[in-house]
Structures are given as structure tokens and as C-alpha cells.
Specification:
This protein is of the alpha+beta class. It folds into 2 domains: about 10-145, Aminotransferase class 4, branched-chain amino acid transferase, N-terminal domain (D-amino Acid Aminotransferase, Chain A, domain 1, 2-Layer Sandwich); about 150-295, D-amino Acid Aminotransferase, Chain A, domain 2 (Alpha-Beta Barrel). The protein contains 8 helices and 17 strands. Strands 9, 10, 11, 12, 13, 14, 15, 16 and 17 form a 9-stranded mixed beta sheet that branches. The longest helix is centred in the C-terminal third of the chain and has 16 residues, at about 280-295. It is globular, with a radius of gyration of 20 Å. It starts with 19 loop residues before the first helix and ends with a helix. It binds pyridoxal-5'-phosphate. Its cofactor is pyridoxal 5'-phosphate. InterPro entries: Aminotrans_IV, Aminotrans_IV_CS, Aminotransferase-like, BCAT-like_C, BCAT-like_N, Class-IV_PLP-Dep_Aminotrnsfr. This is 4-amino-4-deoxychorismate lyase. Belongs to the class-IV pyridoxal-phosphate-dependent aminotransferase family.
Length: about 300
């Protein structure tokens, strides 16, 4: 198998907004050089090295992940220093790379990067991101607080294209989801729910969706265009649910609705487009209980 050789970006070609004199002044003044993302400090590792200088170039200007969004990524939660379901996440990352026509990253190198990032700074709960573009392998981790047990959702104004070639992969071309998330935040909701082009319920901007109807737990099929979520898969394995497609409006008939994702786990929905819903309901509570029990048994199920 041929791998793309991983080389640190050449520092001779660096372009930076800070002069050397400014760097020396900042170092002397005690300003900590730290990588930040969306205002949060992150530990970052790129192509074999922990990033210690936040101004240092880390991604080549020709990187196709950077230029055209042709890359894949995974977001995992880390419990007391151990990433949850790493093997499943790496399998999805490799599948996504194959869809984009790029080689998989070297498994041992990814695992080494994960270990080095996590060794650099530990928190009880961390969010880990692995990004792979075929040229750049970047791993970041940041501390985060658990999501609240329930949240409000709103309908996204934009649909998921279930006929897109990117369906089923976690592509770095993620801005559509970011806009839906921003739409949710503008409406005081924690998640935006997308229908597909057929008008069927699909998924959240960053989560899968389950609902209870006629006493049965249901979730949209993968043909709806939703991501094959690791959490979705584990809920199907550990608890069971019927995979079935239905128009978006099915949510208004549901007795319970919950979201599933690596960082949310199982999160009940207490309002849909401003309409209140009891949450967490009995099925959601039971799924969350089973989830917690199984998660405690194995961190790489
Ligand atoms: C669009 C989308 N759907 C579903 C999910 C849930 O996937 P997972 O359970 O693997 O985190 C995510 C996760 O970020 C996502 O981005």
C-alpha cells in the first residue's frame, strides 16, 4: 500500500503576521504562545509534531483539504484520557478517504498522534478531532463540558442532498452544517434538523435523530442521506430501533425525540420549532441508561 509521505511544512516558506521582534517581545512579556480555535485553547499535532507556535504554518497552501474541502475528519470524545470508539471512527475516516480517492493515513501514525496530543494535556472530558486531507494529518484536542440532557431543535432552512457523492462521509466540506448550526443558535436552539431533498426526516447538522412513534423507537435509514453516526450505530446495536424513512413532519407526531452524536451521546429534545415536548421521555431515559452502562464496559466497542 502506498502512503503519502508525511513531511512537516517547510519553515523556510513561512509567511507570518508577526515579525521576529514582535515574537521576542511577546515571549519576554510572558504572553503564552498557544494555539486557539474558536476562542478555546487547543493542543494541536500536525504531521508528526505537536504545534507549539500558533503562528507557524501548519498546512501547505496547496493542500486540497484547505483549497477545495477535499478531506475527511472525525470528532471523538475522550474520557479520562481515552478516546471513545477510536477504531470505529478511524474506519469511517478511512472509508471517507477512499470515497474522495485519497489513501488512508497510516493507522499507527494516527494512533501515535492521538496519544501525543492527549499526553500533552489531560482533562476529564475532551473533544478530539482528527483531520486528514491526503497531505495533512492534523489532530487537535480541547476540553469541553457535557451537553445538557435535553435541548431544543429547529428545522433547518436548507436540505441534505441524499444524492450527493459526499453522502455518508464526514467531509471537511462542512460549511453547510455550520450554517444550519448558526441558524439553530439564532433561534435559541441547540441543533438544526434537516430534511432531505425528498422532504424526509434526515438528521441534525451534527447529530443523528431518533424518535418514538406508536411505542417504537425509529430512526431514518442511511438512504435518507444521514451520516452513519458511530453513536447511531451503537444505539442500534445496544438498544435497537427500526430504520425507516418518513416525512419531516413525523417529528410533530412523535412522543419522544432524541439526538445522538459522539459529543452529545443521547440528548433528549424538549422543543421542536418552539413546540414543547416532554423530555427526556421514558424511552430516551432507558436508551441513555443502557448507553452509560455499555460505555463503561468498553471504551473501544
Ligand atoms: C452531520 C452529522 N450527522 C451525524 C453525526 C453523528 O455522528 P457520530 O455519532 O459519529 O458523532 C455527526 C457528527 O458530527 C454529523 O456531523
Amino acid at each position: 500500500m502506498s502512503y503519502v509521505r508525511l513531511l512537516p511544512v517547510r519553515r523556510t516558506a513561512r509567511a507570518t503576521t508577526r515579525t521576529l521582534a514582535e515574537r521576542v517581545r511577546r515571549a519576554k512579556s510572558g504572553v503564552r504562545q498557544r494555539v486557539e480555535w474558536e476562542g478555546c485553547p487547543v493542543q494541536a499535532w500536525v504531521n508528526g509534531h505537536i504545534v507549539t507556535d500558533p503562528d507557524a504554518p501548519a498546512v501547505a497552501v496547496t493542500d486540497r483539504g484547505f483549497t477545495v474541502g477535499a478531506g475527511v475528519f472525525e470528532t471523538l470524545k475522550v474520557l479520562d484520557g481515552t478516546p471513545f470508539a477510536l477504531t470505529r471512527h478511524l474506519a469511517r475516516l478511512n472509508h471517507g478517504a477512499a470515497v474522495l480517492g485519497i489513501d488512508s493515513p497510516d493507522d499507527a501514525l494516527v494512533r501515535r498522534g492521538v496519544a501525543e496530543v492527549l499526553a500533552a494535556e489531560a482533562h476529564p472530558l475532551q473533544r478530539l478531532r482528527i483531520t486528514w486531507t491526503g497531505t495533512t494529518l492534523a489532530i487537535t484536542s480541547t476540553a469541553f463540558a457535557s451537553y445538557s440532557p435535553t435541548t431544543a431543535i429547529v428545522t433547518s432552512p436548507w436540505p441534505r442532498n441524499e444524492r450527493s457523492p459526499l453522502v455518508g462521509i464526514k467531509s471537511t466540506a462542512f460549511a453547510e452544517n455550520i450554517l444550519s448550526t448558526a441558524h439553530a443558535a439564532k433561534h435559541d436552539a441547540g441543533e438544526a434538523i434537516l430534511a432531505n431533498l425528498n422532504g424526509d426526516l434526515c438528521e441534525g447538522a451534527g447529530s443523528n435523530i431518533f424518535y418514538v412513534l406508536d411505542g417504537e423507537l425509529r430512526t431514518p435509514t442511511l438512504e435518507s442521506g444521514c451520516l452513519p453516526g458511530v453513536t447511531r450505530d451503537l444505539v442500534l446495536e445496544w438498544f435497537g430501533a427500526r430504520e425507516v424513512d418518513a416525512p419531516l413532519g413525523v417529528l410533530l407526531e412523535a412522543d419522544e425525540v432524541f439526538l445522538a452524536s459522539s459529543t452529545r451521546n443521547v440528548q433528549g429534545v424538549h422543543a421542536i420549532d418552539g413546540r414543547a415536548l416532554g423530555a427526556p421521555g421514558p424511552v430516551t431515559t432507558e436508551v441513555a441508561r443502557v448507553w452509560a452502562e455499555r460505555e463503561a464496559q468498553s471504551l473501544d466497542p
